[in-house]
Write a structure and sequence with these properties.
Helices cover 42% and strands 15% of the residues of chain A. By secondary structure, chain A is an alpha/beta fold. In chain A, α5 links the parallel β5 and β6. In chain A, α1 packs across α15, α3 packs parallel to α4 and α9 runs parallel beside α10.
Chain lengths: 389, 389, 389, 389
């Protein structure tokens, strides 16, 4: 009898949000008999200040195959670029050791680009989730560069699928499976409590059973000189509104140290501690549960565009970071301008929940991804396709 | 009075062929008063076994701003990937020091990808020469990934220009300027001699004033296990033909050590020294001058597709490395099969020179590139464009 | 006439304390006509959370020749080791570019080891300040390893000079010049004020014109699992004493993130904000001025052993980090034990200032170092010497 | 019953000569029930041009735990230094993954220093073989730097043991076990044949059953500008002697590309192919067997000082590379001077075999090393010892 070789699928997790959106995929892959699941964690996902993803994986019964420690200090463009370089070196050693049949990557960060380059030069086929989206930031360039290195594409919406094909990818390897993060959001039953939230942060106590805002504003790496000036507009608008607010610290991108610095300095100067609770991170299910309770999400997180479109949450999206991403009607876009931000927040609060949109949602996203990863024919040599344009 | 700031244009040279094709651009940039030319050399271009480009630059009166030493030994996929990673780190430090306004890159090698990533994360606009081409090898993926990180595109032919625009690049920043290497080939007046050639190599003496072949066959990184088997077909066909031949050693890509090993072993076994002169590299003007004299170029070099189309040289292109690249009628494509290779070579010899083609040629390529680099408005934040599709 | 070539002396600064102790040397080197001073900054010295040394240099009129950005996030053993590795790579590129005649290094940190290795393999003679000391921590091993790579040795005390010679170094290249940091401390006229101090930190207001403690306790990298447990003893003793205290955050060594985490958590739990002001860093002259005013320095900083011996300050030295370093009578050594710490602090407060010791002090340290660096004959090939043992 | 945890002993092999001298240790460690042997290979040992050690290990039934690919191209000081830096990064990841209880290193090369630094910062005790020797080259500095990072020392002779203790190491952790390479030489029964030798190389046929010389001359990294000039003296002396000679290519140190270049160029010019067979490498047992048959070993290899002292082989040691190493009477030292080299070779040939010396030999070296590695109490924190001086 012929014993079929298990397909070795290597899932790379370099940020906590990646894990938050991928958990169902991992759990399903682990259950399959024909798959040997390898999980590689690294980058900011393993740093204590951005949430240590190894603890979450352990909690969910998932094993780690390798840890890739590559993040440089600095929170600036140089540290971001060098982290990418060190990432290529370390992912190369890691993939050479693990010898996966496929490497699965998500989104558009520099650690993800590192892993893509390592896999590409080692002739390992790449599956890429969330390609084809458009946005601002350096992520816009990097996302499409990764698409051009990848072999299998899991777009989260129809527009992105079209763009991926337009860029010359083989149509039979491009799938619109919806955003796996929304499937998780849809199924989430976790009940967040005041106790959990208020033990996690610093600053004011916030009662999440009453009206409250969530703010999460990341640096824009292509506007590096403006990040401080821009965050002040948000700080002042929140200070002046004086509504209970839960504020998440920014991610590891270039500019993060400066934004964090502004937050620390202005916390006191503008009395933010009166109304604002500062939190570093929550577990994915906690975050989704909290999101469902907020009156309005403010900032420039992709969760505002994606998760909130389905969860009906009003969103005030500030600045250029999400430029061009397909939106449902739950989003009001505003400039870096405290008066406009304030006005938009008040408008969203008075509007309340929106109808649920399915532009990013499809049922069974994770099942579809897992089925394709497990069964699709793999190829190495890419070929530009322009038949469908 | 207002003193205009000079535009700092940083030209990156990581392979000798890059210099061979870019010399006119560099010389013209250097002469401009409004440009501060920075030349960064590195990668295989600075290694003695692939030709030390610093000596060529010195010879041509061009100064080097920085040297980037990054190439790992091994000649395999791991060394190629790690070189790319180390390259990102070192180009980041270099660009951070030089602070150029534009970085100019050419083609599709891993060192070029390194430089592109470094520049992208440092928010330095990238100009890219020779994007949009299609081919085999890992270069195919990497070339398009670089396009998605770049801001200004100098395509060498109309098809490539269309592909670049199709991939979502701004049409007003995509230019078909022809291949600058062909402009150099067209203007080349150097007269190569038997003395030069026969002093450079090992093996048989070849009289370049009579019929002779040139062979240059590089490894295909995506067919790594097949490279040895494939090169043997070429070795045997050349051995059996027993026509005077000048054979260039392969480049630094993964697989090169194995191909070189085969050449060394088979040189003796198949009596190649009877008819074959082995050469490491020639100066660009020497190579073009030699090319003009050959009866047929055999192998998988892009010079066969590009330079030879204009220079009327018959070419036997072996295998997949140039798959998909636009061809003039001078090329016969064959598989890795000694009989087919032999047959094609004999056919090309008896055919003799082809009509000159201008699919890759435009007059004044270098002037056009220099004018655009010096004057075009620069931007940082990229935006996917699909208006023109 | 014969024009003498200037000697290129490259001073490497990778921590703020290094600059604090070396400023006079730099200022004197800069003034010499026969010296071309190169200053390379990098490592934790350029990170905002450990004090940005470039601003200090600018303030003091000193130019930076190169910036070396190498520090990995994590605050653990892995990040420390990888930073050392990246440091070797980047210092190599930097020295290759600057081509110094001598590289000057201080002390025993991993970034310093990096620079030593880079210089050693590039055949650049190394001058090393503060070698020969003994202590705990990984620094103990690294300090002596650097000695064995160095060519000129500036010991800060007689015992260390003897140890360096015992290790096989040439006696005519080993000099006891005293600790240049103490010369700076001796000459310091800066007057620190309540206004400066209380604007720099978070927590309680401290009146520095009354009794107050300074605490500065760094992680011990060779006791990595114990650092949290050990710091708690200090936290509790300070909490129980309830004396006004200025507490400096720990340095970048492995374990720092955990110690910082403990401090953040326990600040609230043990009411540290009642009596403790937390400060990240002060300018060197500010720190010395503050030191002169404290009733007692508590923790494991080398300043307690060195600067305080001369400045008469009572010191409670906790744990193993300074094990074996020569002490004056101003130091009481205690275990990680809150009762012993408390008892020792109270004893030191009631004792008051000690007689000034000159075990680490010599007048004109900086002048001696500068004269030797400028004039000594340089050699490359080292040779083990055992004549003097 | 209490199950004792196996001690994880990690043996690092970065050059083929390291394996050649360590094989018996590895075989014995593998057989022990209380030891979990980990073998890490890397550096030049895995490159095809210096002998692929993985094939030798496989042949000897030893498994590889990890491969560390770090060597940069260039054969110069920069590539040597950067390889060291990349080595620190990769050995850190490797040791972090393998979590050994001891890391075992040998000798003084840059890859070995890398591994020592990685282990030191990860708090893994280091056992070091062949410390305490003196020599020329950068190896002299690096060897002692490694000693100062190591915890257990296996000196190969009494002088070296004394030096290690003098440098401040604990005497109870310093052992003179003799050179394990000599134990291998002593036990070697392999019979080398003309067929093996002449199939391995290029150039003249050499009959090893008659008189013949062996030449092996490595670059001296601290005399980098002189290496070409120096090797010419040897080339000319061998050319003029016109005695059958087996010449081994130099190792990977800085300067190797230039020496190899000279050899290639002069091979023809000085008719070396008349009498010289060039060989890249032999298996350890082949090399020892060949050594026993030669009339004289010429060059600067440590085998001339160590293995040949016991094997009675006459040696002409050229230049500074072995300066200071303890010698038996079998060695004649000469400068880089063709006449002196010729004269010394002729003198050694006419002298014939010397009495066997045991200055580097002790029976059961490998058993002693294995027993100590398996049983000795381990410690992390080092402390300078000067009791015994």
């Amino acid at each position: 009898m012929n014993q079929t070789k298990k397909r070795k699928i290597c899932f790379v997790i370099t940020s906590t949000i990646h894990y938050a959106r991928s958990k169902l995929i991992l759990v399903k892959l682990k259950k399959r008999d024909d798959v040997d699941l390898q999980i590689v964690i690294g980058g900011s996902a393993i740093l204590s200040k951005y949430g240590e993803v190894d603890k979450w994986l352990k909690h969910d019964g998932l094993d780690v195959s390798a840890v890739v420690s590559i993040t440089l200090e600095g929170g600036n463009n140089v540290s971001m670029a060098k982290t990418a370089g060190l990432g290529v070196i370390e992912f190369t050693s890691t993939f050479e050791k693990l010898k996966p049949d496929i490497v699965v990557l998500r989104a558009d960060r520099y650690e993800v680009l590192s892993a893509a380059i390592a896999a590409a030069y080692l002739n390992i086929p790449i599956a890429h989730i969330e390609g084809g989206d458009v946005s601002g930031n350096i992520d816009e360039s990097v996302r499409h560069a990764i698409t051009k290195l990848a072999h299998i594409h899991f777009a989260t919406n129809e527009d992105s699928k079209k763009r991926i094909i337009q860029m010359g990818e083989r149509p039979d390897y491009v799938f619109n499976v919806g955003c796996p993060g929304l499937e998780i959001a849809a199924k989430n039953n976790f009940k967040i409590t005041n106790r959990i939230i208020n033990n996690m942060g610093l600053g004011a106590r916030v009662d999440i059973n009453k009206n409250f805002l969530i703010v999460t504003q990341h640096p824009v790496t292509t506007e590096i000189e403006m990040n401080e000036k821009n965050i002040i507009e948000t700080i002042k608008s929140i200070s002046e509104l004086n509504i209970p607010t839960i504020w998440f610290w920014p991610n590891v991108d270039a500019g993060t140290d400066r934004i964090s610095g502004m937050l620390r300095r202005y916390r006191e100067k503008h009395n933010l501690d009166r109304s604002v609770l500062f939190i570093k991170f929550l577990l994915p299910e906690e975050f989704i549960s909290l999101l469902k309770k907020t009156s309005c999400l403010v900032g420039n997180s992709s969760a505002g565009i994606k998760e909130c479109s389905y969860l009906k949450i009003p969103v005030v999206n500030i600045g250029t970071r999400q430029d061009g991403r397909m939106r449902a009607e739950n989003v009001i876009d505003v400039d870096y301008d405290r008066r406009k931000i304030k006005k938009a927040i008040l408008k969203q609060i008075s509007h309340g929940p929106y109808p649920s949109s399915d532009i990013y949602y499809k049922p069974n996203s994770s099942k579809k991804i897992v089925d394709i990863l497990s069964n699709i024919n793999l190829y190495i040599q890419k070929k530009f396709n322009d038949d469908n344009v």
